[in-house]
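Lab notebook: predicted structure, single chain.

Context: the supervisor wants predicted structures on file for every construct in the current expression panel, including those that have not yet been purified. This is the next one on the list. No modifications to the sequence; it matches the entry in the shared construct table.
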Amino acid sequence: FLIMRNIFFLVAVLATALAIYFYNKEEPMPQVKLTTTFGDIVLELDKENAPISTENFISYVESGFYDETIFHRVISGSMIQGGGHLEDMSPKDQKLEPILNEANNGLKNDRGTIAMARTANPHSATSQFFINHVDNGFLNFTSESTRGWGYTVFGKVTEGMDIVDTIAEVQTGNVMQYQDVPLEPIIIESVKIIQ
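Prediction complete. Output recorded below exactly as produced.
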């Protein structure tokens, strides 16, 4: 009887420990792979600190929106921007509604982070994003004002920062009304969730 009681107690302790382990185990952050004509870039999205931006980005990824778009704005020592234009520089339609700015989430526009691009309106981000080539502190949140909102960081590059560096150094010029356009198109062939 004593042995049975000890076994029962041991099983109960083990079951409790396993339950606590699985309960406390954090769900992994989404991983996304951008396959470009220059190579692959893998991103880890921060759904905990930027849930709106992460969900928005994933919606575009799952719909295939980003496939065959380009990095249309490249500034060495600043950032590479994509997610809104096709190879002929025509804007891609069928965008979702603009999202709320989450730049007050504590994440910084440091080298290798991905952030939402937008217009002068702080809450105007849709599909376009940029990857910071360097630390861009001037893009960070300072206050909830038109000038202070900054740009929402929602993830970071975990693989392929060398590809970002290569893209950042390409020759650019003016195409129609657009500046800093790569002279050789940098096509985002596909974007897939890999985790």
